Amino acid sequence: MFACKKDKPGGSYTLPSTDTTRQVLVVCEGSLGNGNSALTLYLPNKDSVYEDVYKAANGQSLGDVFQSITPIGSNYFLCINNSDKILVINKTDWTLQSSISIPKPRYILPVSEHKAYVSSLFSNKLYTIDPVTMQTTDTIVMPYQNTEGLTLSNDGNSVLVCVWDTANNHLYSVDIATNTPTQSTTLAGYAPQEAFYDKEGKLWVLSGNVTKKKDAALTRIDPVSGNVIKTYQFPTGADVVRPVTNIAKDSIYFIEVNYTGGTQYNGVYRMNINDATLPSQAFVQATAYQYFWGLGVDPLSGNIYVADPKGFVQKGSVYIYSPDGTKTDEFKTSVGPGHIYFKI
């Protein structure tokens, strides 16, 4: 079934235009210190894979630890974490347009034509850039280190900032007009990572850093009153990453990672936004000596894409599941697939 897939790992192939077909872009982190990150392109309608479109278009590698990709205007903005840079590439032909120097960039949130926020690891800084001039425009000091996930508030006036510090159990709001932190919401757990909204307009925040003895937790919040609606505390040892919603935003998927080779707390899990408890069984179970690292839901088909980094020591894979959990396809990627973006 999978043998007919057209895999193009080298740099001599003709790249497709992003304007011609549906695409799945896979952020491949690479292995830390080796400079082998890559952008893998999958064309679901053609069942074709292009393993490293940036290198094919530009004749050079991305750099060290590719963290995230954000579409803004006619370009994609790529955060290359350990190389301290954001690379800007053209959506149509993948060619490099500019490079922006930012210390340890993680994620980008555009809020207007001339303004986007950039989170940064190992510092208490949040940066703003102008996506048109491609210059850094401001630096915002946050109360703790490791600015991480960024979410636009429902009213569009604030950026919700997850600050992934083990001493922090608050979600912060930054006023877009003034770039000033204005308020915070107390969370169920420490080290918040990501925030997102559900079908009912309620805000969810994932927190935790199991390596540093901070258990994972999900907090559901009423964004109008700021009150906590529900707290979900994960078992000690459950390392939770990559929360995403389905198309209807009434279900949440997330990954639990077990790095030790065991199957406990290891796989993709699914829950309804109104469930009383966390799921006890995996929706997609990882096998022994396997763990997942990337997760995405196709906004057209509802199919679930699950990335397997294979320990970051070889090329990875992405497995595709129908909404009922049936595996339907898979394709290979470069090293360390971590985030998945759908262009429709």
Characterise this structure.
The mean pLDDT is 94. The protein has 344 residues and is mostly beta strands. The protein is 2% helix and 51% strand. The protein is built from one helix and 29 strands. It has one helix at 53-58; strands at residues 6-8, 23-28, 38-43, 48-50, 66-72, 75-80, 85-90, 96-101, 105-112, 115-120, 125-130, 135-141, 147-152, 158-163, 170-175, 180-186, 192-197, 203-209, 214-221, 228-233, 239-245, 251-257, 267-272, 284-285, 294-297, 304-308, 315-321, 327-335, 337-343. Strand 15 and strand 16 (180-186) form a beta hairpin. InterPro entries: DUF5074, Host-pathogen_enzymatic-act, Quino_amine_DH_bsu, WD40/YVTN_repeat-like_dom_sf. Pfam families: DUF5074. This is YncE family protein.
Q: What is the topological layout?
A:
Elements: E1 6-8, E2 23-28, E3 38-43, E4 48-50, H1 53-58, E5 66-72, E6 75-80, E7 85-90, E8 96-101, E9 105-112, E10 115-120, E11 125-130, E12 135-141, E13 147-152, E14 158-163, E15 170-175, E16 180-186, E17 192-197, E18 203-209, E19 214-221, E20 228-233, E21 239-245, E22 251-257, E23 267-272, E24 284-285, E25 294-297, E26 304-308, E27 315-321, E28 327-335, E29 337-343
From the alpha-carbon coordinates, what is the Rg to the nearest angstrom?
A: 19 Å
Report strand %: over 45%
Q: How many angstroms separate the termini?
A: 25 Å
* Structure summary, number of beta strands: 29
- Overall pLDDT score: 94
Helical content (DSSP H or I, runs of 4+): under 10%
Helical/strand content category: mainly beta
Order of helices and strands: EEEEHEEEEEEEEEEEEEEEEEEEEEEEEE
Number of helices: 1
Major sheet summary line:
5 strands, mixed
Low-confidence stretches: none
What form results from the Cα inertia axes? globular
- Sheet with most strands: strand arrangement: 1-4-3-2-29
